[in-house]
Design goal:
3 domains; globular
Length: 385
Amino acid sequence: MNHMDLKYGCNPNQGNASISMVKGELPLTVLNGKPGYINLLDALNGWQLVDQLAKGTGYSAATSFKHVSPAGAAISIPLNDVEKQMYFIGENEELSPLATAYVRARGADRMSSFGDFISLSEECDVQTAKMIKREVSDGVIAPSYDPKALDILKKKKGGNYVVLQIDPTYEIPSLETRTIMGITFTQDRNAIVLDKTVLQPIVTEAKDLPEEAQLDLLVALTALKYTQSNSVCYAKRGQTIGVGAGQQSRIHCTRLAGEKADHWQLRQADKVLNLPFLPSLSRNDKDNAVENYLRGEVTDWKQYFTEEVPFLTEAETKEILSGITGVSLASDAFFPFRDNIDRAAKSGVSYIVQPGGSLRDDIVFDACNEHGIVMVCNKIRLFHH
């Protein structure tokens, strides 16, 4: 099949929506449900992300996409006890490597992942399907499915859950085209390989770049390759923890992603982990409760909790965040001012990768040296539109 009709385009008033191939067959098979235009944009961008992330790191990979940018992306570094609790994973629940990657990707920014499209780097197993089943999601794409996992997914959303299978051997054409106002744009596909070879040269006084930081930087870089620009990404323990996408200024990207990263850190505080949720709350209601709690916006505690709970104080928040280190950050283009570095340092960033090339590179490097940050300038810009 080289053509597939869709329900409608980006919006219901945009008819005549379809996908097609000029040559050859579509590398995509619909196993369940009916995908929409945006579903497929998320699926195809997400698949490229996880395929390249798995190849670049050697780990299983997953991503959670919303509106053609990743809400979260991750590799299969095992969860510690705190992460299991913050991601609502039971003590006796076993996770395969792929399920671990998915739980991390979904847990990176659970508010943004609501109603996401999931991409998996390898065959979807039963454990991963069980994790997907309990979240609000539009669909999933993977190279194959365990038959039992497929049965689980087909029952989701009343039988309408979108399940796509991608041909992992499909070779993407070297040229990309798109049409706007009847005008066709053509460019070479961004086929750059993001592995450890792109983590050089180091341009700061601090030079130590440990293995775990290298993995985090690769997670962040690969996520940025498929994030609407401008974009900045914070990463920790093999997953994104804050993505700032589609902002017109670099500092707004850094602030937006930094706030998300800070919330990821604060979710691990004892006060948050031990919030007395009402037994009737769904996982999504718990996400809302945690978000509102961290923002100090719970106006009626009886809506979420069995008892009134004190908010994190400003002093407690400052103490928690001031003790954070070892966070990695990647930028899809150069930093024009040192304000980005100063903001990143407030979120515990110790490692940064960016292309460099600003007239103020020396000022940016000096800021990193002041904060003891290791910076890589690899001359690789990763704009994505």
